[in-house]
Structure formats: C-alpha cells, structure tokens
Design a protein that fits this description.
Number of strands: 15
Structural class: alpha/beta
Helix content: 25-40%
CATH class of one domain: Alpha Beta
Order of helices and strands: HHHEHEHEHEHEEEEEHHHEEEHEEHEH
Number of helices: 13
Distance between the termini: 64 Å
Strand order of the largest sheet: 1-9-8-5-4-2-3-14
Largest sheet: 8 strands, mixed
Length: 433
C-alpha cells in the first residue's frame, strides 16, 4: 500500500505544487522554498510510519548534514531560533567548569542583526555587547573588538549576515587569545566557505535554520552543530528536557547502566531516563520535517549554485547604479552562499528608501529590510541590560537606508532583469537619472 500511495504522488505531483513564478503577473517573493516531487514523497513516506517524533529520518538527516557541514555532530531541532537557544544554553552548563557562562557575563554581538541571535543571551541573563558593522559587507567591525572586551566577556555570538562570511580569521584568533567561546549563526549561510573550510567549523558551536526562506527547508527546523563531544552531550541534554540520559526516542538503556547511576541526591539506581542535569527544553524535530530535510539536502549544492549565480547577475546589473547604491562586498578568502542581495542608498542621493520599496512592492517585487535594523532601537531591547560600543553609525545607516531583494533558486534571469528594471524606473520617475 505504501508503494501504491507513493506512485499516486509521483503521477499527480503537479496537481499539488508548482515552483513557477510568472514574471508578468505573479508577485516575485524575496525568498521562498523550492520543493519537488521527491520532497513530497519523503514527507508522505515519513507520515505513513506514524512515528511522528524524531525517528529514522531525523537520524539520517543529522548524520548527513553533519557531514555536509564538516562537523562530527548535528542535533536537529524544531527551528533555527531553537538552535540558537540550545547553542547558547550549552555554554551555561555546570559541566564546563570555570569557562561556564554565568548570569551577568558579557557576550559580544552586532546591533545590525536578527533578534534570535541575541535573544538567548538575554534569556540566559547575560549582557549583550553591541558593536557596529562594516557598511559594505554588513559583517562585524573587527576594529572595535578590543574596545568591546572586558573582564566579564565570555563569548562572541554573531551571524554570517545574508550568507556572507564574517572575518573568521580575526574573530577566531581573538577568541583563542582571550579564551572566549564562539558561536557561528549560519542560518543564512549554509554552504558558505572561508579559507576553503565550511563556515561553522571555526567556532565551538554553530547553528542552522531550515525555515522556508533558507537554503534548504523543512518548513520549520534547525540544527546545532559541533565537533566537541562534551558540547554535543550538553546540547543534547538541553534539547531533550534537560535529561542526563542520551538514549534516542523509543530506545532504552544505551549505557547498559540505566539502574546503576548515583547522581545528585537521588536514590542509588534511580532510572537514568528520568534523571535531569540541566534546566532544559523539548525542542526535538518531527520525523516528517526531517524527511523533507533529507530530500532537500540532496539538492543543496544546486540551490547554492543558483543563488550565487543570481547574485552575480544582479551585481553586474547594479554596478551600473553604483552612484546611487553601496554594493555588497565579499570578505577576503571567503566564498559566500548568498541569502539575498543587499543595497544601501548612498548619502549623496536624495532617494527615499520607503518610497523605493513601496514602489517595488506595488510592482510585485518583494523587498526586505536588513532584519531589525539597529536592535538597540527596537522596543523590546530598550530596557534590557546591555552595553553599546561606539555610536553604531553604520548600523543606523543600515536601519535607515538598506534593503535587500531575492536571489533564491526559483528566480531566473527574467525575474532578475524585471527587478532591476523596476529600480531604474523608480529612479527615472523621481528624475534621479
């Protein structure tokens, strides 16, 4: 019966879903999932198991994604935001001794970022130290690192914004010099390289997201990655209710000592499956999500190649408008895995970003701002404990004048040409060119 159901899906897939975007009538989204017949087959196959929680597909995905990201371990979770929460919570474990991150400790991050990179710092009662970014690469300004450092600094937690790697050599060297933890948020940057190595392999922990906007999707989903066995064990505990046991769902007595442990002040032999060493969560993935991830992972290199090709096409086009816009810049020794194409209006031009993006949206071209702009100016972050380094001038410029457009694999040159033409049309209407 399973084979019959799968054959029905194969023969009728086009009735379920289409990836096409008609440039003459459809809205051109700034991001979007790219799904095919194989993704739906995997989803149906997993659902027919009726296992529902993490199972065979989750195990397969964790193994294959860890290998792809050049890591020893991958822990699948229910979202990229959860991945960030688990990764940072891991650093608060008592098992890390003197290096444990404690309430009141400081963590260097950027103000021009996405909230869920910063939120775990706050949720663990630590202090984010906000620094500025470079205006061309949109990555952390490494020149202010020494100024951001204090005797309370324990970690750096930043993202590779829009798939463009930050200066990993300088950041890694700084962390080693000062004995700091480094978490790389790779949610925008799966597949990016720095000095020939995958992003995520330079830090102690890395995270990824599989939201529909990202390089591969499960609908919702994320991952924590590390090559450190201790950090893997701690992360797994935080993900799985905080328990000390490492058995997979539905499996018992992996350690062969289930009733032989003596931990805390519990009775000797207390069931290890119900012994807890952390104040944890339940952030596991469902096997249906993981099944789609397994299918998507087969196509990831094709997706990244298309994203980068679309980016280069737009870069060549917008190079004609470099009098009006600051074009994105790639870090030396890096190979991005582009998430979007950012543009910043130059100070010398009297162009309203609001008017421009409203015009583009009315003409069916999707746009996004660079996430939260300046996080320190967002209502949620007004009264938190924080430290701000410098005046964040570039971050404020981004908040006021930066936006980005799509490069995702469902777009072709016809879509990209249309997007560029609409920007030119706006400039002509406003008598700028």
């Amino acid at each position: 019966m399973r084979d019959e159901i799968i054959n029905i899906i194969k023969n009728n897939y086009n009735n379920f879903y289409s990836n096409s975007i008609d440039v003459n009538s459809d809205y051109i989204p700034v991001s979007g999932k790219s799904l095919d017949q194989d993704d739906l087959i995997h989803l149906i196959d997993a659902s027919l198991d009726m296992w529902l929680t993490a199972g065979r597909f989750a195990k397969q995905f964790e193994f294959e994604f860890a290998s792809y990201m050049e890591q020893k371990y991958c822990l699948a979770v229910n979202s990229g935001s959860s991945a960030n929460l688990i990764a940072f919570s891991t650093l608060t474990s008592q098992f890390l001794g003197d290096r444990r991150v404690c309430p009141g400790d400081e963590v260097i991050t950027v103000a021009a970022g996405f909230p869920t990179t910063v939120n775990p710092i706050i949720q663990c009662d630590c202090v984010p130290v906000f620094v500025d970014v470079d205006l061309e690469s949109y990555q952390i300004d490494v020149a202010v690192l020494e100024q951001a450092l204090s005797n309370k600094t324990k970690a750096i937690f930043i993202a590779h914004t829009l798939g463009n790697p930050f200066n990993l050599k300088t950041i890694s060297d700084f962390c080693k010099k000062h004995d700091l933890w480094l978490i790389e948020d790779c949610c925008d940057a799966v597949g990016a390289k720095y000095e020939g190595k995958s992003v995520g392999t330079f830090g102690d922990l890395a995270t990824a997201s599989f939201y529909p906007a990202h390089h591969i999707t499960m609908g919702e989903g994320g991952a924590v990655l590390t090559s450190n066995p201790l950090l893997k064990k701690i992360s797994e505990s935080f993900r799985d209710w905080g328990r000390d046991c490492w058995c997979e769902p539905g499996v018992d007595n992996t350690c062969n000592k289930r009733f032989q442990w003596q931990l805390g002040s519990l009775p000797s032999g207390y069931d290890h499956k119900y012994t807890y060493s952390h104040i944890g969560f339940n952030l596991k993935i469902s096997d249906m999500q993981a099944a789609v991830g397994v299918s998507q992972l087969k196509k990831i290199n094709k997706f990244i190649e298309k994203r980068n090709s679309n980016f280069l096409f737009l870069f060549k086009k917008f190079s004609q408008l470099d009098n009006f816009f600051i074009l994105p810049k790639v870090q030396e020794n890096s190979c991005p895995s582009w998430f979007g194409f950012p543009l910043t209006i130059k100070d010398s031009n009297q162009i309203s970003r609001k008017d421009l993006i409203v015009f583009l949206e009315k003409n069916r071209v999707g746009t996004r701002l660079l996430f939260a702009g300046n996080l320190t100016r967002q209502p949620a972050y007004t009264n938190i404990k924080k430290r701000i380094v410098g005046k964040l001038c570039n971050t404020d410029k981004i908040m006021n004048d930066t936006f980005w457009i799509g490069v995702h694999p469902r777009l072709n040159e016809e879509h990209l040409e249309y997007m560029f033409d609409k920007v030119c049309e706006f400039l002509k209407i406003n008598e700028v060119i």
